Amino acid sequence: MLIIFLLAIGTAALGLLVVGWIAYPQAMVHRGIRRRVARSGGDASPCARISVILATREDDTAIARRIENLLASDYPLELLDVIISLDDSVSSRSADICAMFDGRARVVSGSAPGKAAALNAGVEASTTDLLLFIDSAQYFERDTIARLVGEMHEPSWGALTATLAATSGDAFMDRYWQRELTIRQGQESQHGALSV
After folding, report:
1. Cα–Cα separations (whole angstroms), residue 78 to 73, 84, 126
2. What sign has the CA pseudo-torsion 13, 17, 18, 20?
3. CA-to-CA distance for 72 and 37, rounded, in angstroms?
4. Per-residue model confidence as pLDDT tens digits over 162-186
5. What is the pLDDT of residue 11?
6. What is the DSSP letter of 143?
């Protein structure tokens, strides 16, 4: 009797693993492929003023590279309110970072260490209803901001995210990331999931 009970528990556990690690991801991949819709790319004509918030504790070089990439965008610079929100642990560098951008970006600091406090400080400093959160590790194509803003004109959407391209140079990791993106597309078509 004990052996039958243990076999039943083992079979149930194996079944849960198969569902969670194989069946569900495969169903979402299938759904993502089947329901992949050709998007228009949004209205690429920018018309909205947006606050771009970089919450970071990275070094000055990483911050400068990211902001320069942002400012090289096709989006009109006069419509961008660029906010660099420093983690409280590096807030002593704010004057130096502010000087690097000569008025093209504002620098604020979180009230406590951690990314959440930096994000909150950036949102509090924002001057627009449309917020774009960026990270220092990723970079935009020149038309990314215009495409994101264009897509936000869909009245039923409250938030959206861009797609991180699989370009690590590691073939295995790039394939893994591509599968992850396909799973997310499947989830989006069923649940409206937003992954950030």
Report:
1. 12, 17, 15
2. positive
3. 30
4. 777 777 788 888 888 877 777 777 7
5. 94
6. T
